[in-house]
Specification:
With about 240 residues, this protein is of the alpha+beta class. The protein is about 35% helix and about 20% strand. It is built from eight helices and ten strands.
Amino acid sequence: MKQNTGYPQLREIFPRFKTAEYLKSLFPKDENPLYFPFCHNIVTALCYKRLNNFIYITENAAVNLGQSKEALYDHALSNLRSTQTQEVSIECDRGPDFSSFIFTTADGHDSARLLTFAQHPDKLRSMLDIGKGQLMIACMPAQDSLTVISPRSATFIKTLSEQVQGDYRDAKRHLQLTPHPFLLGDDGIAQASWADVAAMCKGQSPLRAMNWVNTEPGDALQNPAIVESVWDQALKCDLRLN
């Protein structure tokens, strides 16, 4: 369901990752959903909930709410942050080859929590019990799936890449996001390939230059040409790895 009579309160609006193709398929051609490009075909949509249905905000609805697109984005992220401590379910795991935590809230917003946690790399390092400079990656093969990991062996990375790509293939089409990893660091988020991650785990440089972006609307997140180029390079690297 994508339409509803009346408009939401600002406190009801949250971000949600979707593929641009699927989001646009929910609307007639003359109606445009409001979204912010994140990477390649993944976008940040803004939505609210009515009777267990997510209602996606359109560009026209944003105008009727009397808010700029950027202001609505800020409200949505602020609302998501406000749920971080009391209502979010996180499972932590550690082994000889990795440290990780997985968001298991299953409220439709788990993958989008990458937008808020990526702004605080020190908090991520503390949760993973690692020091500055150690590798951190995020995986979100499906909408209700976000795992943040610090891998410590190339063997583990190969196993992880196979699992994430399998989870992506097994997810229902409308829930699929990406089989590729993201690097997390002080500069923000960078989409990577599994070959990049394997190289960095061995203490080598990534196979290509990383294009770091922050999670605020604007900058590189709003430039489709940049994210398309990054995605194409990641695909080529992973073809070589597999």
